[in-house]
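Re-run with default settings, no changes from the original entry. Doing this only to confirm the output is reproducible before filing.
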Amino acid sequence: MVLVVVMGVSGSGKTTVGSRLAAKLGWKFYDADDYHSPENKRKMAEGIPLNDEDRISWLCALHDILRREDSSRQNAILACSALKKMYRRILVSGTSAIGSNQPEQPGEKAALKILFVHLDGPIDIIAARLEKRRGHFMPPELLKSQFDTLEPPSAPENFITVSLEKSLPEIVLEIERAVFQGEGFLE
């Protein structure tokens, strides 16, 4: 059973890459944007960056989705910005990660084993993508705030970084190889 979170700033291609990978592998796909509250969507549409407080309940709901898939032994892919280390900890451990750097306590559910795929690339390429995108609540003006917030994954997080300057088929293949090479670790 494998859980993958395709992460990165707005416009990095999370939904495109995640949905393409899920279709290729026959796995479930979730887009975190579908789970934002109306209030969060309104704030972003008005050019107001979300703060940590805005994101907590959203991240906990996403953790619950991943926990459900894990419990039912389903492979799943989630497209989610997951910009900060704290946000990724919430996706892995749920509410027990909030305000805690402590290891899980006896009786707590074990942390989920998730492969984070960081889609990384230069701001100018991503900005050009956002300028072309229509009908999305995230305006291009918020891109800088996303880069300012971004804490790229680092050890001991379970992650790979993939350049979004590659073609979509190359990106999907690179992730697929990483998933199946590391599958024993993820089990």
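Strands lie at 3-7, 28-31, 76-79, 114-120, 159-163. The longest strand covers residues 114-120.
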